[in-house]
Amino acid sequence: MIDPTSPPAVGVLDQGAELTFPPGFRWGAATAAYQIEGAAAEGGRTPSIWDTFSHAEGRTVAGHTGDVACDHYHRMPDDVRLMADLGLKSYRFSVSWPRVQPGGSGAANAEGLDFYQRLVDELLGRGIEPWLTLYHWDLPQPLEDAGGWPARDTAARFADYAQLVGDALGDRVRYWTTLNEPWCSAFLGYGSGAHAPGRSDGADAVRAGHHLMLGHGLAVQALRASRPDARLGLTVNLYPVTPASDSPADADAARRIDGLANRFFLDPVLRGSYPTDLRADLASVTDFGHVRDGDLEIISTPLDLVGINYYSRHVVAGPVEGEAPQAYWRAPTCWPGSEEVRFVTRGVPVTDMNWEIDAPGLVETLERVHREYTDLPLYVTENGSAFVDAVVDGRVDDVDRLAYFDSHLRAAHAAIGAGVPLRGYFAWSLMDNFEWAWGYTKRFGMVHVDYDSQARIPKSSARWYAEVIRRNGLAAQ
Ligand code: FCB
């Protein structure tokens, strides 16, 4: 007899030879405002830290900026039609803070809000569930000038902004993500300086991480009070962290990086405390004096769901004199207090970002969050890969990207079979876009964008994904 309280075994979800996902599984794609919208100085929008950063000398590859990006601001109805053609059930987008609240405080900008109202109406009109992210890294520049995320007041400004967006869109948007990947905002923005605002100070990065979470908690409280029916969560980018060998030094390196990359956010948000070992690792960087009484209660305000972005795994080793590989976000300054840890490459296939392709890591990550932290519904709010694409006779046959999606969806399915309450999956990204410090040189889209003509071409992966959505599953291998 099947015990209805026990999680379904993989076989229960299989119909025939196919891998079928549970009914109602939310299939989507994701984007972010600064990466696609363009129209940087239109409709009352003022600069964010990403405008300032990308316009500064030498910060992005070839000096690329998001001034025009995919011109989505002007092409939005066509882009929503494209989503409908692909059969998307859900679309995760972010709201540009400086578009709807220029300067980051005070009254709403009606013209900016109008863009998102029209977007939401277009989506709903085509049967696509809007999934709104409040903060995907575009802090209004005046808030950075006042101290940015290392300053406590920024958390309060964020809660006000959340309230403002909630008031405008809460009647039609059910799913809300407060922050996208606070690790990147804190440790790339204020630690390594690879991302806006480009500052490099370990203590500031740690403070920024705390105030981001504080802003998240305050925003959840504000939205919960005004929109009791909203489904609220945040999105963290998580990595399995594996020691390069079974030596104690490598095990300690893995513990440290897991602390900074994963537990720094998971523990306060889902357990209401910072890990003791993380505090000890950071002792030379900060005394945590920025954490005030009551903060952790706010930060751990109950949620309805957790969003997880998954791309790759970290393999790490303890220090070896004279060796400290530095690559993009793995630069030692990303890891305050653990600068000596080495990131090891194993020689397995990588994407165009040089990120190792590791689908089993997705199962590990989802199972870990469920086992160690929460019974809440989980969503993969981003997963995808950059590869070099070629347009041949008007087609883009992106076999590598398609294989990446396929292997990670099989992993997602296996996680469900193992009892993880995974309720949806958002491919990153709907279309090629401004990949932050890499500008337009890295393509993650299922839809190809010609940045001169702004023509969109659905790649093979997009057509394949449409079929996955249609059958709510994957063909047998
Ligand atoms: C994530 C970001 C997203 C995109 C992908 C490739 O870290 O959330 O905006 O850049 O990586």
Topology:
Elements: H1 10-13, E1 14-15, E2 18-20, E3 26-30, H2 33-36, H3 49-55, H4 72-86, E4 90-94, H5 97-100, H6 110-125, E5 129-135, H7 141-145, H8 153-169, E6 175-180, H9 182-192, H10 202-226, E7 231-237, E8 241-243, H11 248-271, H12 276-281, H13 295-299, E9 305-309, E10 314-317, E11 342-343, H14 360-373, E12 378-382, E13 391-392, E14 395-396, H15 399-417, E15 422-428, E16 447-449, E17 456-458, H16 460-471, E18 473-474
Parallel strand pairs: 3-4, 3-15, 4-5, 5-6, 6-7, 7-9, 8-10, 9-12, 12-15
Antiparallel strand pairs: 1-2, 2-18, 10-11, 13-14, 16-17
Helix pairs in contact: 4-6, 8-10, 9-10, 14-15, 15-16
The protein binds beta-D-fucopyranose.
Would you kindly provide a written description of the structure presented here, covering whatever features stand out?
The protein is an alpha/beta fold. The chain has one domain (19-471): Alpha-Beta Barrel (TIM Barrel). The protein has 16 helices and 18 strands. It has helices at 10-13, 33-36, 49-55, 72-86, 97-100, 110-125, 141-145, 153-169, 182-192, 202-226, 248-271, 276-281, 295-299, 360-373, 399-417, 460-471; strands at residues 14-15, 18-20, 26-30, 90-94, 129-135, 175-180, 231-237, 241-243, 305-309, 314-317, 342-343, 378-382, 391-392, 395-396, 422-428, 447-449, 456-458, 473-474. The strands form five sheets. It has an eight-stranded parallel β-barrel, surrounded by five helices. It has a three-stranded antiparallel beta sheet with strand order 1-2-18. A hairpin with a 2-residue loop joins β13 and β14. α4 (72-86) runs parallel beside α6 (110-125) and α8 (153-169) packs parallel to α10 (202-226). The longest helix is centred in the middle third of the chain and has 25 residues, at 202-226. It is globular and about 55 Å long. Residues 1-15 have low confidence and may be disordered. It binds beta-D-fucopyranose.
